[in-house]
Amino acid sequence: MKRTLALAAMAISGGMGAQAAHAQLAVGGSIGTMGGSVEVQTQISPMFQLRGGYNYFQYGVDDTFDDIAYDGDLDLTTLGAFVDFRPFSNSFILTAGAYFGEKTLKLNAAPTQNVEIGNQTFTPAQVGNLDMTAALEDTAPFVGLGWDSTFQGSGPGMGFKFIVGAMFTGSPEVNMTASGGTLSNDPNFQQQLAIEEQNLQDDIEDYKVYPVVQAGLTFGF
Questions:
Q1: Helix (H) and strand (E) counts for the chain?
Q2: Tens digit of pLDDT for each residue in 111-127?
Q3: 8 Å CB contact between 142 and 166
Q4: In what order do the strands lie in the sheet with 68-75?
Q5: Which pLDDT value is given to residue 203?
Q6: What is the torsion angle, in degrees rounded to the nearest 10, for the CA atoms of residue 40, residue 154, residue 160 and residue 53?
Q7: Using an 8 Å Cβ cutoff, are 97 and 51 in contact?
Q8: Which of 68-77, 128-137, 150-159, 181-190 is least confident?
Q9: Any bridge partners for residue 85, and if so which?
Q10: Residue 156: is its pLDDT beyond 90?
C-alpha cells in the first residue's frame, strides 16, 4: 500500500513538473483571409487557452455592381479575442470568439457614359461621382477549428498554427451618395438613388458569413 501511494505521488509530481515546464505564454504571427495577424496567447489549463490579437487587412477592390464600375478599398482591420478548447489535450483545437472593429467596403464611381440608377437613365454630367459604403457589424462572432502545437512541447519553443472557421458579419448596411453632378440635389434623382441603394442592399443581403483561414508560427516562453 505504501509503495502504491509512493508511486502515485511520484506520478502526480512528475505530471505537475512536466506541466510547469510547459510554456504558459506565447506570441505569434500569421497570414490568411484576415490579412496579417499578430497574437498573444496564454494557456490556462491543458485543455484551454486564451488568445488576443490584431489583424491588418486592406484590399483594393475594382468591380462592377448593377452595371456601374466602382473602385475602392475593403478594410477588415480588427482586434480579436478567442477561447481555444483542446478536447483531446493535444494540438487539435476548437475555437470561438469575436472580431471587433469597423469593417467596411468603400467604393467610388465616376461614370463616363450613361448609367441606369434606380429606374431611370442619367448622363455622367447629371450623376457626377457616386460613393458607396457597405458597413458590417462592429462585433462579429467567430467559430472554427484547427491545429495549434503551441504549449504542446516539453518546453518553450516554436509552434505551428492552422485555423479555419467563419466570421458571422451580418448583412452589410449599404449607403449611397452622389456629388458633383447637375442633379445631385434634384428630388427625383435622390429618389432613384435611394432605389439603387435598396437594390444593392437586396443583392448582398445573403452575404452574412466571411471565411477565415489562418496559418502561422508561434513562440512560447
A1: 3, 15
A2: 999 999 999 999 999 99
A3: yes
A4: 58-65, 68-75, 104-109, 128-135, 173-180
A5: 83
A6: -10
A7: yes
A8: 150-159
A9: 48, 94
A10: no
DSSP string of 29-61?
EEEETTEEEEEEEEEEETTEEEEEEEEE-EEEE
Looking at the DSSP bridge assignments, the partners of residue 72 are: 61, 107
Task: Give the burial class of 220: count Cβ atoms within 10 A of its Cβ; 0-12 exposed, 13-18 middle, 19 or more buried.
Answer: buried
Task: Delineate the domains of the chain, giving CATH numbers in brackets.
Answer: 23-220 (2.40.160.170)
Sign of CA dihedral 40, 44, 45, 50: negative
CA dist., res. 138 & res. 172, Å (int): 11
Torsion sign over Cα 113, 118, 120, 126: negative
How many C-beta atoms lie closer than 10 Å to residue 15's C-beta?
Answer: 11
Question: Does residue 147 contact residue 125 with C-beta atoms inside 8 Å?
Answer: no
Strand, helix or coil for residue 76? coil
Which residues on neighbouring strands pair with residue 97, listed in sequence order?
Answer: 82, 142
Residue 75 CA to residue 77 CA, distance in Å, equals: 6
DSSP secondary structure code for residue 102 in this structure? -
Cell numbers at 113, concatenated:
457614359
pTM assigned to the model: 0.81
**Helix, strand, coil: what percent of the chain each, to 5?**
20, 55, 25
